[in-house]
Write a structure and sequence with these properties.
Order of helices and strands: HHHEEHEHEHEEHEHEEHEHEEEH
Shape: elongated
Oligomer: single chain
Helix content: 40-55%
Strand content: 15-25%
Structural class: alpha/beta
Number of strands: 13
């Protein structure tokens, strides 16, 4: 099976005839016909029915066409990459960033690094829980920036900052759940029983291989899942539930009173979460990524 044969077959399907396919590919009609027949002979199946005026896909041909099209797309991407590499492709740096880091630790260092590498193609994917480290395992990120969740001896990691997490809700949401539970809040501490039936808004794990459940939860409580902290914040402001959220994301709302901090019984209502620069131990970094790693650590130590 050759790529020219696949192109001939796909072109006949998409152009509607052998003649049109030949014109599209700048080939002779007998060449296109022979290429398709060679595919059919190789696998012992009929890809096209020639009973009508125009060739039509058989049942086998429909399945074959779908995969042939996908393969040719991959070939085109690979050819494009090869041409880019031959011309000296721009250097790339990929970072897997925890969703809780709306302001990445070392942002000034990242900016300065990019300024010194004007041709750099920077890619930052926002992930949560197992998704942060999964990007390293899948070789989709050079380094990761996130909390300690999932870290073990397979990783090298260095503390580069902290994120303050705080539990909040709107006054209307809290007043409504207190009223429903026939409770008051004179002590300033809200019982878990009061919040158990109010949606706890959580950011879902973005990983696909070994997902991790959220840690700071109330057992038996209602849970709503969103994809990022911006949606979580929007639901909070709409009186739709309560949540832990990075302090730096809601400072204005706390100052205005739109959101209020909660002290929840036997719950980590506030905490300082260490954030790490992370790499795989057995996965060598590119020269560019290695320089980035060193500069991020150096900026932390200054």
């Amino acid at each position: 099976m050759k790529s020219d044969q696949l192109r001939a077959f796909v072109s006949v399907v998409e152009q509607g005839s052998f003649r049109a396919a030949a014109s599209h590919l700048f080939k002779t009609q007998p060449t296109i016909s022979a290429a398709v027949k060679a595919l059919e002979a190789q696998f012992g199946i009929s890809l096209l029915s020639r009973d009508a005026y125009r060739p039509t896909l058989t049942a086998e041909g429909k399945s074959f066409y779908k995969e042939a099209k996908r393969l040719l797309n991959h070939v085109a991407e690979l050819e494009s990459l090869g041409h880019q590499l031959s011309k000296g492709a721009a250097p790339r740096l990929s970072i897997s960033l925890s969703a809780m880091c709306a302001i990445p630790p070392g942002l000034n260092t990242i900016k300065q690094f990019c300024d010194r590498h004007p041709d750099l193609q920077l890619s930052i994917s926002t992930e949560h829980l197992s998704g942060i480290l999964e990007q390293l395992h899948l070789d989709k990120a050079d380094v990761a920036i996130g909390p300690h969740t999932g870290l073990d001896e397979r990783f090298e990691f260095v503390d580069i900052g902290k994120v303050s997490m705080i539990t909040v809700a709107t006054p209307a949401c809290i007043n409504a759940c207190l009223l429903k539970a026939n409770r008051s809040n004179t002590s300033g501490v809200i019982a878990q029983q009061v919040l158990r039936h109010v949606p706890h808004i959580l950011v879902a794990d973005t990983g696909s291989q070994s997902p991790i459940d959220n840690i700071n939860i109330i057992s038996g409580g209602r849970r709503w899942y969103v994809k990022d902290y911006q949606v979580k914040k929007a639901l909070l402001l709409a009186d739709m539930g309560w949540a832990r959220i990075p302090l730096h994301m809601i400072e204005a709302e706390l100052a205005s009173g739109a959101l209020i901090p909660l002290q929840v019984e036997n719950f980590a209502s506030c905490s300082e979460v260490p954030i790490y620069l992370i790499r795989l131990q057995q996965h060598p970094l590119s020269q560019l990524a290695s320089h980035f790693w060193d500069e991020m650590i150096a900026s932390r130590e200054r």
